Amino acid sequence: MAAITPSILNADLADLAGEVARIPSADGVHLDVMDNHFVPNMTFGLNTVESLRKHTALPMDVHLMIDAADRWAPAYAEAGCESVTFHVEACEDPIRLARQLRALGAKAAMALKPGTSIEPYAGMLRELDMVLIMTVEPGFGGQRFLDEMLPKIARTRQLAAQAGLELAIQVDGGVSEATIARCAEAGADTFVAGSAVFRSPEPDVMVRRLRALVTS
Ligand code: DX5
Ligand code: ZN
After folding, report:
1. pLDDT digits (tens, 9 = 90+) for 185-209
2. 172 catalytic, yes or no?
3. Mean pLDDT of the chain
4. Which helix (H) or strand (E) segment is 111 a member of?
5. CB atoms within 10 A of CB 26
6. Atom of ligand 1 nearest to the CA of 41
7. What is the pTM of this model?
8. How far is the CA of 169 from the centre of ligand 2 (A)?
9. What number is the average pLDDT over the span 171-175?
10. Superfamily of chain region 3-215
11. Is there a contact between 60 and 52 (Cβ–Cβ < 8 Å)?
């Protein structure tokens, strides 16, 4: 079943609770944490995520675009995020971190920048609940979807199938009505959409439209 997890990056960050309330049909809310080091942009951190927990019952899917993920990621699981995504490029020991996140009751997810291959991680997919394939360079919303990432989505799905795993594959960046079907055909089942949802006059209608495009 396809999951739509809108990103609030391009929503009104001064009214996070209000913005999340505009997407009741979503399968979760995608929270982009940026530290101005791993990516050239800064958003919010743990305090904000902890505060938002009190204002929404939607699953919180945090995407950590921060250095030293090993050190900071577990606190987001402790804060009640259902899913915690770290970037493999910012992580010293992805297997140890994934196990720690699962032990804390969160789904463990690993993100790959466009230039990072899945191949070196083929043997550790069983440690993960989800792989996030970035379909833009992380840092900003509203960028153009990178079609070149479709083979990486397909390869990740193939590796998971070969290992007999029910791995979720999430795509993030430039996902819209125009691109979502391509992602699903390649093997993605979890879809982040930021500007497509929050620049729409009716964000919840867009959530349902996106889901309909990938549900047969
Ligand atoms: C970008 C973030 C995304 C961003 C996507 O680095 O990780 O979650 O909000 O925005 P759109 O959907 O506009 O590309
Ligand atoms: Zn994201």
Report:
1. 999 999 999 999 999 999 999 999 9
2. yes
3. 98
4. strand 107-112
5. 25
6. 6
7. 0.98
8. 13
9. 98
10. Aldolase class I (3.20.20.70)
11. yes
Q: What are 35's two structure tokens? A: 């530290």
- CA within 13 Å, CB half, 154: 8
Q: How far is the C-alpha of 64 from the C-alpha of 47, rounded, in Å?
A: 14
Residue minimizing CA distance to atom 12 of ligand 1: 194
Please identify, by atom number, the ligand 1 atom nearest to the C-alpha of residue 145: 14
Give me ligand 2 centre to Cα 94, in Å: 19
Residues 6+ away with beta carbon under 8 Å from 31: 7, 8, 44, 49, 52, 60, 61, 62, 63, 81
Pairing of strands 130-134, 168-172: parallel
Q: How confident is the model at residue 97 (pLDDT cuts 50, 70, 90)?
A: very high
* 125, 160 Cβ separation under 8 angstroms: yes
Residues in the chain: 216
Q: What pLDDT, on the 0 to 100 scale, is given for residue 2?
A: 95
Residue with tokens 């996030």: 132
Q: State yes or no: is 189 an active-site residue.
A: no
Tokens representing 7? Answer: 């990103």
Ligand 2: distance of its center to the CA of 159 in Å? 23
pLDDT cut 70: percent of the chain above it: 100
Token pair belonging to 67: 């250095």
